[in-house]
Design a protein that fits this description.
alpha+beta; Trna Endonuclease, Chain: A, domain 1; six-stranded mixed sheet; three-stranded antiparallel sheet; 4 helices; about 25% helix; globular
Length: about 160
Amino acid sequence: MRFEELATTRKGDIGERIVKSYLTKREMTIYSTDSGPHPIDFVAIDQAGKLFFVEVKTYPRRAKKSDTGIDLADWYKYAEIERIGVVWLFFIDEFEGCCYVCSLSDLKRNNTTQGEKIYFDLSLFKVLFWLDRGDLNEIRKASKVNMEQYKGTKRHFR
């Protein structure tokens, strides 16, 4: 199966589209990477000419802890990219129902490593917007996450 055909890639494409739309509405210029695996999802430039590297994660936070995380290998890759400019991590979270963001540099101060993952407390993130019903349904349709595991979990951002 090709990279573009993977369920996680299709779900990630939805999240990237949502974040690109949000940033474009704020008059940022978006430069996307070619298709296939890539070290960063896209580059955004604000009206002042400042460059940002953007990575979008389209999955929910952990069910039993008020945190979210990424693969440790990705963390190291983003840290290398940060030598060039600011790296933003956007999370499109189907459980919380929102998009939240934090810069990689702000996440360096408070994180926990477990195995091959690094986790960040949700209090470090800023909610940018709530997902509309259409986007949320599209993400959930593409998702393989068992939402039953979230039964009894309190939402952090509400």
